[in-house]
Amino acid sequence: MEFRRTDIAAILIFGILLYFGIRTISPIVDAFVIAIVITYLIRPLYSSIEKYTGHKELVVVSSILIFIVPLVLIGLYTLNEIVTTFQKSDIISIINESFSNVDALVEYVTKNVLFFIDFETLSQNTIDTIANKAIELGGLLYDYIIDLTFSIPVILFKLLVAIVLSFYFLRDSQKIINRMCELAPEDMRSRFTQLINSIDIVFQAVIVGYLFKAIFTGIISIAIYYALGIPNALLLGIFTGMIDFIPLIGPWIIEILLFIWYIYQGQYQYAVIVLVVTYFFISFIPEMYIRPRISGEAANLHPVIILAGAIGGLFAFGAIGVIVGPMVLGIIFVILRIYFYNEPYEKIQFGYKDTLFNFVKGVFVRDKQK
């Protein structure tokens, strides 16, 4: 009886500690996810450098610097150019005046875009309600941009934490994997090791798919901006590709700012065209086709699993869910294939070149065979 009471007390204490542990970790969960992303992106570089030296910590630091420093320099230069352009244009005044022009935009849309509806039969109150809702939506967008601006120090701090975490993940990843495999029962160890390796493949595939999607977005953006006659198309396209890799932001910010700019200029028809074209080619196609296809080819999973994970993860976990969601669904399907169907899950050689080759082969070779 005494043993049971001690056991129950230990479980209760552990449960309380676990609760506070989760509370402690939850504010930086996104930093852990970013650290995982950085780790998988740097790992091929780390593996290449490690061949020439046995000093792990030096290799890890060198890999992180080689990967991070050029990105930071390019990002700072591009951001400086964008900010300078906005300062010259007085972007705050432009946003405010654009929101005040919503009535004219609604009038244009009702007369030219939704011409098939007889708006003359609608009351003026209905049209005013539409305009007010549009203004309200614009105000929410304005507040979001302001909140995002003030949260930049927190984002930068979490990014710094993620870089530090990635250092330990890179240095000790093999030790962590070996330790996890040792915890499995002897008769299940081989299958559990296969499961760990398969999860590794899924994580790699999701992240490399996200990277290539951002690269494709940048290339597509440059082409679309040039086609639409938008100034500084090259610089704006590079910046669009860079922020596409940031789940919290994404290319929609550029699309909305361009929309606001042309409303401010009074070019309502062109504003609508720019918004529709940029959203379809820069946001919709890369998100709905390119990324699921790349990640699916790399992990030997159907693209629908990746797509469902990204969309569901966005609603369930917020911005970071577009990465977490596909990982979670991928792990579930890997467990089903290994433990319930005894299906071997062979490791695909990871690397940027190999993954891109698999994607191109899947699109141009496999589709032709069908």
Structural overview:
There is one protein chain. This protein has 370 residues and is an all-alpha fold. It has one domain. It is built from 14 helices and no strands.
Label the overall shape.
globular
The overall average pLDDT, rounded, is 75
Question: What integer value in Å does the Rg equal?
Answer: 25 Å
Content-based structural category: mainly alpha
Q: Helix and strand layout, with pairings?
A:
Elements: H1 2-25, H2 29-50, H3 56-89, H4 91-100, H5 102-113, H6 124-150, H7 152-183, H8 189-228, H9 233-244, H10 252-264, H11 268-299, H12 303-317, H13 321-340, H14 352-369
Helix pairs in contact: 2-3, 2-7, 3-7, 3-9, 4-10, 5-6, 7-8, 8-9, 8-11, 8-13, 10-11, 11-12, 11-14, 12-13
Provide key terms for this protein.
370 residues; mainly alpha; 0% strand; globular
How would you summarize this macromolecular structure in one to three sentences?
With 370 residues, this protein is mostly helical. Helix content is 84%, strand content 0%. The protein has helices at 2-25, 29-50, 56-89, 91-100, 102-113, 124-150, 152-183, 189-228, 233-244, 252-264, 268-299, 303-317, 321-340, 352-369.
